[in-house]
C-alpha cells in the first residue's frame, strides 16, 4: 500500500515539472538613505538581492523613475549597474545627479525594487543678478543656489556693512532697494552668497547716477540713471545725456550737472588739444589688477594713471594706455606731477 502511494507522488511530480515554490527576491540598496555626498567626487551605490527562487532574470537602475541607459565602462556619467556588476558608479557627481535612485530586478514574481535619495552638497552659486529701474527707485535682485541653502548679502564697495535687503529663502533671492535715488548712491554694489561649504561667490553691479538734468521740454528736474555692467549700453546713455546737455546750454539753462561719463569725453578732448599739466593728479600702481568688467582698467605694477575723478568709495576714474576706466583706489598711491616727471 505504501509503495503505491510513493509511485503516485512520483507520477504527479513528473506531470508538474515547475518548482514547488516561487520566492521573490529581497532587494537592498546602500550605503545609506538618504545618502549625502560632496560634489566632484565619484560615488558608488550598492544593490544586493537575496532569497530569489528561481534566480532573478535582469537588474538595472532608475533615476527619478527613468531607466539609466546601459552604461559604458570607459566613458559616461554612469558605470555598471547590471546583472554582472550590480553596484552603480557615478563619476564626478554634481548637483544634477541629486535625486531618487532605485535598483530594479526582474523576477518570475514580477519587478522588485529598493530606492534611496542621493543628496549632493555644493557651494553657493550666484545664478543671476538683475536690476529694476524706476524714475527714482532702483531694485537690485540677486539669485543664488546651493546646498545647504545659501545666505545672500548685499554690500556697497568700500564698506563691509551689509545693506538692508528683503530675503526670499524659498526662491533663493535677496533684494536691496534704493529709494529716492541721488548722486551719492552711485557705486559698485556687490552680492555675496555663501553656505559654509566651499568658498563664497560674489558678483557686482555698477550703478551710476548721472545727476539732475533739466529737460528743455519739462520744468521738473529728472534723474538720469545708468545701471548695469555693460559698457556699450552705458555709452548709449552717455550720448543721450550729452545731447540733452547741448540743448540745455543753447536754451541757457544752467541747472544741469555734468555726468561722470561726460568727464571722460571732456578729458579726452583736452588730451588732443594739449591740456595744461597744472592741477593734474596721478597715481602709481602698486599691485597688478585684471579687470572684471569692460569699463575697468587693467593695472600693472608701476603704471602711472592720470586721475580724472577720485572719491572715497573705493573706485576711481582715470586714464591709462589710451583708454579711460575705473580702477580700485587701494591698488595705487597718489603721486605729484614732479614725482611723475622723475619716473
Automatic annotation (TrEMBL):
Source taxon at top rank: Eukaryota
Keywords of this entry: Disulfide bond, Glycoprotein, Immunoglobulin domain, Membrane, SH3 domain, Signal, Transmembrane, Transmembrane helix
Alphabetized SUPFAM superfamilies for the sequence: Immunoglobulin, SH3-domain
GO cellular component labels: cell-cell junction; plasma membrane
Domain Ig-like stretches: 25-119, 123-206
Keyword Transmembrane helix annotated: yes
UniProt topology in membrane: Single-pass type I membrane protein
InterPro entries in the cross-refs: Cell_adhesion_signaling, Ig-like_dom, Ig-like_dom_sf, Ig-like_fold, Ig_sub, Ig_sub2, SH3-like_dom_sf, SH3_domain
Gene3D superfamilies: Immunoglobulins, SH3 Domains
An MF annotation (GO) of this entry: cell adhesion molecule binding
GO biological process, one term: cell-cell adhesion
Transmembrane segments: 223-245
Record-annotated SH3 domain positions: 278-337
Pfam families, alphabetized: Ig_3 (PF13927), SH3_9 (PF14604)
Cleaved signal peptide residues: 1-20
Cellular compartment(s): Membrane
Protein name: Immunoglobulin superfamily member 10-like
Species the sequence originates in: Branchiostoma belcheri (Amphioxus)
Amino acid at each position: 500500500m505504501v509503495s503505491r502511494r510513493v509511485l503516485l507522488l512520483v507520477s504527479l511530480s513528473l506531470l508538474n515539472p515547475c518548482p514547488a515554490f516561487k520566492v521573490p527576491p529581497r532587494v537592498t540598496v546602500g550605503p545609506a538613505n538618504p545618502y549625502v555626498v560632496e560634489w566632484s567626487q565619484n560615488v558608488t551605490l550598492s544593490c544586493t538581492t537575496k532569497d530569489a527562487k528561481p534566480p532573478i532574470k535582469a537588474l538595472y537602475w532608475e533615476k527619478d523613475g527613468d531607466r539609466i541607459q546601459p552604461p559604458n565602462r570607459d566613458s559616461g556619467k554612469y558605470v555598471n549597474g547590471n546583472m554582472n556588476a550590480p553596484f552603480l558608479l557615478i563619476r564626478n557627481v554634481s548637483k544634477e545627479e541629486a535625486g531618487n535612485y532605485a535598483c530594479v530586478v526582474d523576477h518570475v514574481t514580477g519587478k522588485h525594487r529598493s530606492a534611496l535619495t542621493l543628496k549632493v552638497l555644493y557651494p553657493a552659486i550666484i545664478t543671476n543678478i538683475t536690476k529694476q529701474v524706476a524714475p527714482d527707485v532702483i531694485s537690485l535682485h540677486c539669485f543664488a543656489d546651493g546646498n545647504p541653502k545659501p545666505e545672500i548679502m548685499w554690500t556697497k564697495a568700500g564698506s563691509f556693512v551689509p545693506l538692508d535687503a528683503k530675503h526670499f529663502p524659498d526662491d533663493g533671492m535677496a533684494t536691496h532697494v534704493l529709494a529716492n535715488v541721488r548722486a551719492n548712491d552711485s557705486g559698485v554694489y556687490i552680492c555675496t552668497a555663501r553656505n559654509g561649504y566651499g568658498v563664497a561667490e560674489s558678483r557686482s553691479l555698477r550703478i551710476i547716477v548721472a545727476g539732475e538734468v533739466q529737460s528743455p521740454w519739462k520744468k521738473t528736474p529728472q534723474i538720469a540713471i545708468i545701471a548695469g555692467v555693460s559698457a556699450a549700453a552705458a555709452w548709449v546713455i552717455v550720448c543721450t545725456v550729452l545731447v540733452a546737455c547741448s540743448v540745455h546750454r543753447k536754451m541757457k539753462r544752467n541747472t544741469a550737472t555734468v555726468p561722470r561719463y561726460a568727464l571722460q569725453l571732456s578729458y579726452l578732448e583736452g588730451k588732443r588739444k594739449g591740456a595744461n599739466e597744472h592741477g593734474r593728479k596721478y597715481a602709481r600702481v602698486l599691485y597688478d589688477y585684471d579687470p572684471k568688467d569692460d569699463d575697468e582698467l587693467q593695472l600693472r605694477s608701476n603704471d602711472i594713471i592720470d586721475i580724472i575723478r577720485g572719491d572715497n568709495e573705493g573706485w576711481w576714474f582715470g586714464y591709462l594706455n589710451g583708454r579711460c576706466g575705473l580702477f580700485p583706489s587701494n591698488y595705487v598711491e597718489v603721486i605729484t606731477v614732479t614725482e611723475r616727471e622723475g619716473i
